[in-house]
């Protein structure tokens, strides 16, 4: 599992994580309240063939959501909520294919 932690990731204690990407410094404009994240096989960010995972939170319709929808990885007009006490997001399925496969990480 790879966890993307809002902030520096210091509260992450999940033993199943093989990598933690702290948002502070590693990812620009990564906010807890509203944002998106996509994982690509190449730098062709407009390609539905290149995107392999996607999540958006806080609101729908971010910059790459159309590519994720075209790839079948996201549902139009959908997003997940991240509670104030959460530290990041994680996929709850090996190959996430929509908002139902993402959850907010609460730490601990």
List the helices and strands and how they pair.
Elements: E1 2-5, E2 19-22, H1 23-26, E3 35-40, E4 51-57, H2 65-70, E5 88-91, E6 102-105
Parallel strand pairs: 1-2
Antiparallel strand pairs: 1-5, 3-4, 5-6
Describe the structure.
The chain is mainly beta and 108 residues long. It is 9% helix and 27% strand. The protein contains two helices and six strands. The chain has helices at residues 23-26, 65-70; strands spanning 2-5, 19-22, 35-40, 51-57, 88-91, 102-105. It has a four-stranded mixed beta sheet. Strands 3-4 form a two-stranded antiparallel ribbon.
Summarize it.
It contains 2 helices and 6 strands. It is mainly beta and 108 residues long. A 4-stranded mixed β-sheet has the order 2-1-5-6. Strands 3-4 form a two-stranded antiparallel ribbon.
């Amino acid at each position: 599992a790879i966890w993307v932690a809002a902030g520096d990731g210091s509260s992450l204690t999940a033993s199943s994580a093989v990598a933690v990407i702290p948002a502070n410094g590693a990812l620009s404009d990564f906010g807890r309240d509203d944002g998106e994240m996509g994982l690509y096989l190449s730098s062709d960010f407009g390609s539905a063939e290149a995107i392999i995972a996607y999540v958006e939170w806080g609101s729908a319709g971010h910059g790459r959501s159309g590519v994720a929808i075209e790839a079948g990885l996201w549902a139009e007009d959908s997003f997940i909520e991240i509670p104030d006490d959460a530290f990041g997001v994680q996929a709850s399925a090996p190959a996430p294919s929509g908002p139902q496969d993402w959850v907010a990480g609460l730490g601990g």
